[in-house]
Design goal:
It is a single chain. A hairpin with a 5-residue loop joins strand 2 (about 35-40) and strand 3. The protein has a single domain, classed as Alpha-Beta Plaits (2-Layer Sandwich). The longest helix is centred in the first third of the chain and has 12 residues, at about 20-35. The chain has a five-stranded mixed sheet with strand order 4-1-3-2-5. Helix 1 runs antiparallel to helix 2. The protein has helices at about 20-35, 55-65, and strands spanning about 5-15, 35-40, 45-55, 75-80, 90-95. The protein is globular and about 40 Å long. The termini are far apart. It contains two helices and five strands. By secondary structure, the chain is of the alpha+beta class.
Length: about 100
């Protein structure tokens, strides 16, 4: 059985995504999937995140992020695939 490819996804989510536990739920799901990276609020009301891990698991969190937690209204999800770097040891919430 082939080993899943490791990938890095960088997203920026816009809509009603702050004040609805988007970061906390993103962190919880990423940790459950064994992903590393970070999530943070942006000053303009959007949420930004970077995920690293096995491609199918990153795909799962991306699918979830398109709708977010109850109370969120995701209007757009900008996705940038980047080169996997393996630079994170956990998944954390960043406070800028």
């Amino acid at each position: 059985m082939p080993v899943p490819e490791n990938v890095r996804a960088h997203i920026i989510v816009s809509g009603q995504v702050q004040g609805v536990f988007f970061r906390a739920k993103t962190q919880q799901i990423a940790q459950e999937l064994g992903l590393t990276g970070w999530v943070k609020n942006l000053s303009d009301g959007r949420v930004e995140a970077v995920f690293e891990g096995e491609k199918p698991k990153v795909g799962q969190v991306l699918k979830w992020a398109k709708s977010g937690p109850p109370g969120a209204i995701v209007r757009d999800l900008e996705l940038i695939w980047e080169d996997f770097k393996g630079e994170f040891s956990s998944f954390e919430i960043k406070y800028s």
